[in-house]
Amino acid sequence: MKLDDKLLIMVEDSDHIYERCANRVKHEMPTEQGEYFYTMGYPFCQEFSEQQQLLEYAWVQGWPLWADGEFLDWHGQKEFIQLPRLEGEDDDSYRERILNRTQEEEGSGRAKDYERMARNAGAGSAKAIEHLRNDLSIDIFITDWEGHPASQVLCDAVRAAIEKEREALHDVGVLPATIHHVVVAARLILSSDANPEETEAKIVENLNIYIKKNEVLRYQVIANLMFVPGVEDIADYTLNGGTNNIVTPDGAVNVLDWSPLP
């Protein structure tokens, strides 16, 4: 479980607490274990330290952003979320669905509603497009949890689950998404103290987040995302072989092909 670097929680060990208490009383800390103050005070400091750790754990689990296990299940059961964990679903996937659910407003059968229904039914990602076949059609293109085009079995299962919630007269189809390869090629100019593997891993993480959330991929934005700590400059950068923005085709999901140049 990783917490944001900006999140600061005060947790002290027993020695730190004892030192503060002793200095406040005597302006110096008795270090001899046989001294009366140490014998009487140190056990309380141990207890305070343990309570701080318990409070830290309780505070962290109180937020869906950092909660895990049964505590994350509890967040999903809240009245305004009501989103159960899918069978076999890991914490990261479940947490993402919960966070997405809190940011979405339920409508009356628009594309975003059907995308949410598909994810809740087991799709890894979903993209709904209206009016492809007729005025009442909504086609949902889905992937599995690994980001691959969904199997027919998964498509059928998602379609059956959506049937319970779909709006009357809506002609809903669930289809495997196609793969849209996003090829990012660049030569990185690194600082002398940079770790090449860690630097590239951070770049790939940034790019994956961006291309999964956007349909129009902007050349300059992707360039900016490559400037992580350790990168001084980039050269010979191309996006799908050119320098223009690209648009994700209908029914496709973006998949990153990272190609660092020597």
UniProtKB/TrEMBL annotation:
InterPro entries: Baseplate_J-like_C (IPR058530)
Annotated Pfam families: Baseplate_J_C
Superkingdom of this protein's organism: Bacteria
Domain Baseplate J-like C-terminal intervals: 184-256
The name this protein goes by in its record: Baseplate J-like protein
Species the sequence originates in: Aneurinibacillus migulanus
